[in-house]
Write a structure and sequence with these properties.
Elements lengths: L1 H18 L16 E5 L3 E4 L9 E6 L4 E3 L1 E4 L8 E10 L5 E10 L10 E5 L2 E12 L2 E4 L12 E7 L2 E7 L6 E9 L5 E7 L8 E5 L1
Parallel strand pairs: 2-7
Antiparallel strand pairs: 1-3, 3-4, 5-6, 6-7, 8-9, 8-15, 9-10, 10-11, 11-12, 12-13, 13-14, 14-15
Length: 211
């Protein structure tokens, strides 16, 4: 009888001990999700020098958490100076995950008939192929700004006159990136050349020919 009683006591003590929880046993499950930035009125714009700067409303929503979020915007547009102006938009959810977006405004008097869009090959890498897409007058997206097969990075540039392209600091998958000494020629083929300013790329001049 004593043995049975002792055995029951041990089992009871074990159950009591194993079920007891302390605050340290409780962990918070954090959902990994990223906000979606929503542009009301568009993301890509082109205005002539002296033209009216577009008004764009930016909002953000995290569908996983069901949260409408504030968006922090930065940057300005100088409509008196030709160039590409990039306005950053950053949204953060309650778990601390952020999404960075951007609005692109080209200020240029380039003729709307000029079109650099198409397929290009980098001279030093014949097997490379990049796609230039026209987003607005004088404003373009490159599918691979460095022409690097191992590191294709999307970036944007603007044509501000017949022979000059510019690409200021902008957010990319390789971090902040820009181009310098950007030039375009048309004979015998349309050719783009520039330096990529980013730690992941070298300092050589990159030349691309339309085909």
């Amino acid at each position: 009888m004593k043995k049975i009683t002792f055995f029951i006591f041990v089992i009871s003590a074990f159950i009591f001990t194993s079920c007891k929880k302390t605050p340290a046993d409780v962990s918070k499950v954090v959902k990994v999700s990223y906000p979606t930035i929503i542009y009301s009125g568009g993301q890509f714009f082109s205005i002539p020098v002296g033209g009216t700067v577009p008004s764009v409303t930016v909002s953000a929503y995290d569908s996983t958490l069901g949260q409408s979020l504030n968006v922090v915007q930065s940057g300005t547009v100088d409509n008196t100076t030709p160039g590409l102006y990039i306005l950053q938009a950053i949204a953060k959810n309650s778990n601390g995950y952020t999404t960075t977006g951007a609005i692109y405004v080209a200020v240029t008097n380039i003729s709307p008939t000029v079109d650099l869009s198409g397929n290009y090959a980098r001279l030093s890498t014949p097997d490379s192929s990049i796609v230039i897409t026209k987003e607005a007058n004088g404003l373009y997206q490159s599918s691979d700004i460095g022409g690097a097969l191992s590191l294709p990075i999307v970036a944007y540039f603007a044509q501000i006159n017949d022979s000059t392209i510019v690409g200021p600091d902008q957010p990319t998958d390789a971090g902040t990136l820009s181009i310098s000494n950007g030039a375009v020629t048309y004979s015998p083929d349309t050719t783009l050349s520039y330096h990529v300013v980013n730690a992941s790329f070298g300092t050589q001049l990159r030349t691309f020919v339309k085909y």
